[in-house]
Amino acid sequence: MKRALIWDLTKAGEVIHQHLAPHPQPFSRGEKGAESPSPAGRGARGEGKPFVAKHPLPPELLQRIRELRKNATDAENLLWEFLRGRRLHEAKFRRQHPIDGYILDFYCHDAKLAIELDGGGHADPKQRQHDQARTRHLEAKGIKVLRFWNHEMLRKTREVMEEIWHQLDERLSHPHPQPFSHQEKGVLFPSPAGRG
Questions:
Q1: Between the N and C ends of the chain, which has fewer C-beta atoms within 10 Å?
Q2: Does 52 map to a domain?
Q3: How far, CA to CA in Å, does 67 sit from each of 71, 85, 93, 95, 117?
């Protein structure tokens, strides 16, 4: 018989005693001893993939990620609005995602695509060398790095988003319809001539 946890409460919600009691309703049809309708490996957020435990991040790195998210630039906030919730090409992006000690502004694991938005500090020769070394390291791992200046994201949003779309289209294995067709109402970024 199915059992439910019952709480005996007194005073202001204070738990005094708990015990198991028979559940008032019996098993539903197919519930008792039946196999799950979900295939093995599926279920809540499983999407058919095996569960892989995350390794905890070092506290300093986690703190830096939180600071970067909290102090995001206008360009980063704008791009995140387009990327979050699988809004672009149904690709899942993470923001301020750590890989090998580097923190990527935006990262799509399925496409192995990193997007970096750079401010004026990235024009400094030492910073440019660091950025180039970082890009080489990531590309050696099969990760494509797209770099845009903050002002490009803010002033040339359509062009930036089209470049990201085309990279996703090339790098994701499943075919996907062009999201910004001319027939759709409220088009934000129509596809350029000759591209889908």
A1: N
A2: no
A3: 6, 21, 19, 12, 16
Sequential pLDDT tens for the chain (196 residues): 433 333 333 333 333 333 334 444 554 444 455 555 555 555 555 556 665 656 788 888 889 899 999 999 999 999 999 999 999 999 999 999 999 989 999 999 999 999 999 998 887 889 899 999 999 999 999 999 999 999 999 999 999 999 999 999 999 976 555 555 444 334 455 444 444 4
User: For the packed helices 74-83 and 157-171, what is the interaxial angle rounded to 10 degrees?
Assistant: 40
Residue 94: inside a domain? yes
DSSP character for 187?
A: -
- For the chain, the residue count is 196
Question: How far apart, in Å, are the Cα atoms of 46 and each of 41, 117, 174?
Answer: 6, 31, 19
Q: How many CA atoms lie within 13 A of 166 on its CB side?
A: 14
Q: What is the pTM of this model?
A: 0.61
Residue 102 in any domain: the answer is yes
CB 83 within 8 A of CB 45: no
CA–CA separation, 6 and 8 (whole Å): 7
For the chain, state the CA radius of gyration: 24
- Number of domains the chain is built from: 1
The domain in which residue 165 lies consists of 59-171
Laid out side by side, the sheet with 102-108 consists of 94-99, 102-108, 113-118, 144-149
